[in-house]
Amino acid sequence: MAQNTSMEEFEALLNESFEMDTPDEGSVVKGKVIAIEAGQAIIDVGYKMEGRVDLKEFANPGETAEIAVGDEVEVFLRSAENARGEAVISREMARREEAWDRLEKAYADDARVDGAIFGRVKGGFTVDLGGAVAFLPGSQVDVRPVRDAGPLMGLKQPFQILKMDRRRGNIVVSRRAILEESRAEQRAEVIANLTEGQAVDGVVKNITEYGAFVDLGGVDGLLHVTDMAWRRVNHPSEILAIGETVKVQVIKINKETHRISLGMKQLQEDPWDLVAAKYPMESTHTGRVTNITDYGAFVELEPGVEGLVHVSEMSWTKKNVHPGKIVSTSQEVEVMVLEIDSAKRRVSLGLKQTMRNPWEVFSETHPEGAVVEGEVKNITEFGLFVGLPGDIDGMVHLSDLSWDERGEDAIQNYRKGDMVQAMVSEVDIEKERISLSIKNVGGDKFAEAVGGVKRGAIITVAVTAIEDGGVEVEFEGMKSFIRRSDLSRDRAEQRPERFSVGDKIDVRVTNVDSKSRRLGLSIKAREIAEEKEAVEQYGSSASGASLGDILGAALKGDDE
Predict the structure, then answer these.
(1) What is the value of pTM for the model shown?
(2) Looking at residue 345, which CATH number applies to its domain?
(3) Which of 304, 310, 365, 452 has CA 20 to 30 A from 394's CA?
(4) Is the domain of 450 the same as that of 529?
């Protein structure tokens, strides 16, 4: 009887064990730590099943596992039994399943999640979100590029989930979104407390070519290079350094874009308030060349006050050269104030006005009629340009090259670099022109030779050449030509060959042509004039006296 009872109890227990629901593989079950050995925790998951889990699965990245015998934990049942008869379990996979449930809810609610960066991968970093591993792109680490992510590794901090796919196991998070949201809140708070015109302290955060960004305590403002000082600033680094604390004035606030424009010079006295009084018209001052352009040079009269010397006001003589050929940057120069426009903050300066006009100086030292010597600088189709004292040029027109030759022929006798003497004919200071004459240096030989000779005069000339058409003669060094028809009143005597070179003959002047520099001479005219005079003095052919009688009486009278 007792034996039957025990068999019934055993059968009941067996049936009870069969009727118990065993956990499904691939699910999360609860278990108790019953022992810790060899870096593993032995966990009883019930149902007469035990499994082992590495202690590192119970710790967050970079932390030590905190687990003890008797602790209840959730694990993931991968398999009910392995080759050693133990359950295959995983704390990490259990945490992952738990984490995915939590993260999906956070993603749906657009809520932040906590995590820690624990590794670096191509294009970014890996983040542990409490059991689930997410990808953090490099561009989403910070609002500015991060060169060294070391200080961020293992640090628990909030992240924003950008995208997740449980089926593929992909999660993408952003740290930058959290920072931008925080900065936006901070910027809004700081901007709300700022007013235009307010003076505040800030720290130079970054320097660029066009200005500097100044941190005003959570919000950055732009300090443009033109608002740093009243003087010209070539680069912000000339007066600012990163990390330097500066006092600035809020110039403008854009409430929509949260952009803030700052200025430093607005807190300083404007030097232009005293410009008109300090720099009266036509006063001269010493300044420093700060910038050179194609159209002139900027000269600093004092810090914050610059004037422009236009290229036309730089030199009396150098008209078509680049300003850089006349002055150089940082050079000290003397300038004259020509015009002031305080409204436009412009000062027009002159460099050449501090020196005397070289045409005036030349006019004083070389009056008209003075002879100068200079080098032929240039030869053109209308004359020569000769270098003169004062770095100026004078022009010798073709018509002023020679008395005896045509200008086109005479100019062939000159070359660039030749030294020549010329007489000053005219100085036009206003037009900056000097007219010279080479032919006048030796005087007008024609004028000197024929100065007392008038038309109708009888002069003696010497035969210098015999030609078919007449004879060439010379008077006081000036050459003239007597045509065949003018050699005699008698046609039979109009023979050039009856004269010899060297013969002295009396001729009558029929014309004095100063333009062509020629004397009109005639033997025939002289003979006719003599005949007319004899008739008037000794008788008339109409009274019955022959011409021979009249001439004979005239000759006899001459002998007496």
Answers:
(1) 0.44
(2) 2.40.50.140
(3) 310
(4) yes
Q: What is the pLDDT of residue 253?
A: 84
What integer pLDDT is reported at residue 68 of this predicted model? 76
Which residue, among 144, 142, 180, 178, has the nearest Cα to 158 in the 3D structure?
A: 178
Residue with tokens 């359950």: 87
For 85, how many CA atoms within 13 A lie in the half-sphere containing its CB?
2
Range of the domain at 40: 23-94
Q: Is 481 exposed, middle or buried (0-12, 13-18, 19+ CB in 10 A)?
A: middle
User: Hey, which residues does 75 pair with through a beta bridge?
Assistant: 29
What pLDDT does residue 83 have? 54
pLDDT of residue 289: 93
User: What residues form DSSP beta bridges with 121?
Assistant: 124
The answer to whether 223 and 211 have CB atoms below 8 angstroms apart is yes
Nearest CA-CA partner of 481 in 450, 454, 521: 521
pLDDT tens per residue across span 171-201? 999 998 888 777 777 777 777 778 888 888 8
* Residue 64: predicted pLDDT: 67
Question: Cα–Cα distance between 418 and 245 in angstroms, integer?
Answer: 69
- pLDDT tens per residue, range 128-157: 887 788 999 988 888 777 778 888 888 888
Give the residue from 13, 11, 43, 12 showing the smallest Cα distance to 28: 43
* Last residue of one domain, picked from the residues 94, 128, 153: 94
Give the residue among 24, 23, 48, 44 at the shortest CA–CA distance from 34.
Answer: 44
pLDDT at 18: 45
Helix H or strand E segment including 447: helix 445-449
* Separation between Cα atoms, residue 504 and residue 269, nearest integer Å: 97
Q: Are 348 and 311 in contact (CB under 8 A)?
A: no
Which one of 267, 295, 319 terminates a domain? 267
